[in-house]
Amino acid sequence: MSSENTIVECVFDIQFESTSVAESFISTIAQVDGFEQITKLPLHQVPDMIRKNDPNLKMQPLYEIKSLENNDYKILLGDYTIGMAIDSDYTSWTNSLFPQIKKIFTKILESKKITKINRMGLRYVDFLESENIFKTGKINVNINASENNSKKIFLRIEDSIEDIQYNKTVANSIKYPKYEQEGSIIDIVTSFENYELNVALNIEKIFSDIEKLHRVNKEKFKEVISDEYIAKYGI
Known about the structure:
two-stranded antiparallel sheet; about 30% helix; alpha+beta
């Protein structure tokens, strides 16, 4: 994890309609920053008919594509979904991740293989090692007028703001891979569900909406963490 933040996972993804299959996107993706290192994921072994008729499998990626030039990100590609995820320490939305999203997805959208986007989502996961967010953050859990912030808590909130859906999961006493001590997880997904946007006419709007997903995700994160955290990391 970078000392500049506590982000351990971040992924932007779209679900779409297309007349093409996943393999047809690979050559387009490879034109950007050397994304040519292709790994078939286990789901690739499942027959097409089973995958495409199972709602739980249909939107899952079949390929992981990494860059020979840039090890910060990876592409997750399926027949109906494309995502970009961090593959190293998170650095910056403005100066790194969003420009990379624009570069990759401009190439994909201009290829006209995608006819309609049905969903767009952005997920951030933060892990605060050796910290109980229910003690140090802005969430207080009371049952029968008694504080329960010292106990193991798993809290999930689902709501919408403007036209964006969000779900926020906060939990303490969590063991996260590669960390020695337990800590707290803050997992926030912001999404446009039922997006149904005609791609050819709206590429600039798509990128504007992606930035909107990020803004709302950040706002929801700031509702949880302490003001001291906000000041420390300049959020």
